[in-house]
Design goal:
6-stranded antiparallel β-barrel; globular; 8 strands; mainly beta; two-stranded antiparallel ribbon; homodimer
Chain lengths: 128, 128
């Protein structure tokens, strides 16, 4: 169960404090810079495709088991498995994006992504 | 980037050949048997909740970069990042389920899951 990053997020979001708590809550467009070794795995991806992006939320606290959802102290303490918090035992982010352009052989521009610059990318899948 | 399994799938699906290619294409109900160490992370999960389950597809071939979607040879060879194939560099499964019952402190019964018995579970998140 060892992960190999397949690429990295390029984004104007530079710090965790800048990232919105929820998708599409003002997330900027971003570029998925995929490693050249995985160029073939991008075959037939086109603008307009909806993809699921899995990321490794590398700044997360892996020891947190409960939190207040959306950092809202008025909300009751809740198990992290019933939240979208990035603090969790395996900090894998799940993001739904639309491809807006292919840039060169191995980069994809996407409409909105709530992950900061430098976040490792683990996987892409076609969305259902 | 090291993964810690948080539990295991218990299912009547015993072999990869039995698992449907697509979610809800006849997938049976299943039990998410979560390790006791993560009981607190399940706090407030209730029947009716819709969750995203991340699994480690432990029988996958990690070297495959292209395939025919749904194992249909009439479909053109496509990069795995534009498919849902389990064969991919980081074989993480993304499944959407509905919790139908809590069983004891750390097991969740879910309505349908296309992962075989023994598949390691990596994460649960509330679905959007």
């Amino acid at each position: 169960m060892e992960l190999r990053p397949i690429g990295v997020v390029r984004s104007s979001l530079r710090e965790r404090a800048d990232a919105p708590n929820q998708p599409h809550a003002g997330a900027p467009e971003a570029v998925l810079a995929i490693d050249d070794a995985y160029a073939d795995a991008l075959n037939r991806i086109e603008p307009g495709d909806e993809l699921i992006v899995l990321t490794w939320l590398h700044l997360a606290d892996l020891e947190v088991l409960q939190c207040h959802p959306q950092d809202d102290e008025r909300k009751p303490l809740t198990g992290v498995f019933r939240t979208r918090s990035s603090d969790r035992p395996n900090p894998i982010g799940v993001h739904r994006v639309t491809v807006t352009a292919r840039e060169g052989a191995t980069a994809l521009r996407v409409n909105a992504l709530e992950a900061i610059d430098g976040t490792p990318i683990l996987d892409l899948k076609v969305a259902l």
